[in-house]
Amino acid sequence: MMHRIGVLTSGKDAPGMNAAIRSVVRSGIYEGIEVIGIKYGFHGLLNETMEKMDAASVGSILQKGGTILQAYTSEEIVTEAGQEKAIENLQKHGIDSLVVIGGKEALRVTASLAEKGLPCIGIPATIDNDIPGVDEAVGFDTALNTVMDYIDRIRDTASSHEKSSIIEVMGKDTGNLALSSGLAGGAENILIPEKKEDIEDIVDKMKKGPSGAMRYSMIVVAEGSVSGNDLNVRLKEEAGIESRLTVLGHTQRGGAPTARDRILASRLGAYAVELLLNDESGKLVKVENQQPVSQPFNELFSQKSQIDENLYDLSGRLSI
Ligand code: F6P
């Protein structure tokens, strides 16, 4: 029987992390368990920055972006010695299990801690949505809506001046955020690392257009594909196309989580606690077919993160 659960956020922040923390804390308290908030991610676990959380400590955070527990990266935690120290620190504080909220790297560490015997569950949270086997990580929907909103705004001015626009979107080495936001914003071109679209394709498309030539193009480029700046320079030099560049940067990681992210995070937080209470460990939680489900880490990391090919084809067909 669990008595005390630790919770931490690791890696980069994502909107909805606070909603997940709140859910873990309140679900734990509801079940009569103590919940300890570990500040500064795994770094804090190694340095024992922990405090007991009560129901009020997570009041009014549901609607806030970022994470009240601070999202940190730690080089030490990926080492064997670091992981052993982390487990010792948890034992020292009477914490018998751990919920980790974070992206791929955080979940890898969590998997490793679980293999070492620590009961743990991971909650996927990243705007990159790059976790193999997970349709939607916490934070993705908010970032997607933020990017879509910027594409809409930029299109207003791009269409008024008939000037092409390049919008550089985050996503690390994957194109999920760029693809979904590009489709939602009706981008004419979407450049993602998983596909080979290049300047020639952009120029070809501009030549075609409904009236013989497209007057301007909205080009969404994933940061992992080519830098927006390089693309801007090459379009001018190689094709004579002048465009304006907007690098959305950290605007897409902040902001109030959407209702969808709040609900997802709330469900996953509660489900993580439920699994630990049922002595389950070494899994991550996700929603599939409207239901929370879990999947062992080893199954997830044997797969590769993939883009949805149907979405990519659809965006091509709709942007002629
Ligand atoms: O993983 C989230 C993310 O925002 C990526 O999309 C991006 O590549 C990276 O973090 C940026 O990190 P930093 O905030 O350190 O620049």
Detail the poorly predicted runs. Answer: none
- The count of strands amounts to 11
CATH architecture of the largest domain: 3-Layer(aba) Sandwich
Which small molecules are bound?
6-O-phosphono-beta-D-fructofuranose
CATH topology (level 3) name of the largest domain: Rossmann fold
Task: Tell me the major beta sheet.
Answer: 7 strands, mixed
User: Please, how many helices?
Assistant: 11
Walk me through the structure.
The relative contact order is 0.17. The protein has helices spanning 17-30, 41-47, 80-92, 104-115, 140-161, 176-184, 199-208, 228-239, 259-277, 297-301, 309-318; strands spanning 4-10, 34-38, 50-53, 97-102, 120-124, 164-169, 189-191, 218-222, 243-247, 283-288, 291-296. It is 42% helix and 18% strand. The radius of gyration is 22 Å and the shape is elongated. Strands 3-2-1-4-5-10-11 form a seven-stranded mixed β-sheet, with helices on both faces. A four-stranded parallel β-sheet has the order 7-8-6-9, sandwiched between helices. It is an alpha/beta fold. Helix 2 crosses helix 3 (80-92). It is built from eleven helices and eleven strands. The chain folds into two domains: 4-139 and 257-300, 3-Layer(aba) Sandwich (Rossmann fold), CATH 3.40.50.450; 141-253, Rossmann fold (3-Layer(aba) Sandwich), CATH 3.40.50.460. 6-O-phosphono-beta-D-fructofuranose is lined by residues 12, 103, 126-128, 170-172, 223, 253.
What topology emerges from the helices and strands here?
Blueprint: E1 4-10, H1 17-30, E2 34-38, H2 41-47, E3 50-53, H3 80-92, E4 97-102, H4 104-115, E5 120-124, H5 140-161, E6 164-169, H6 176-184, E7 189-191, H7 199-208, E8 218-222, H8 228-239, E9 243-247, H9 259-277, E10 283-288, E11 291-296, H10 297-301, H11 309-318
Parallel strand pairs: 1-2, 1-4, 4-5, 5-10, 6-8, 6-9, 7-8
Antiparallel strand pairs: 2-3, 10-11
Helix pairs in contact: 1-9, 2-3, 5-6, 6-11
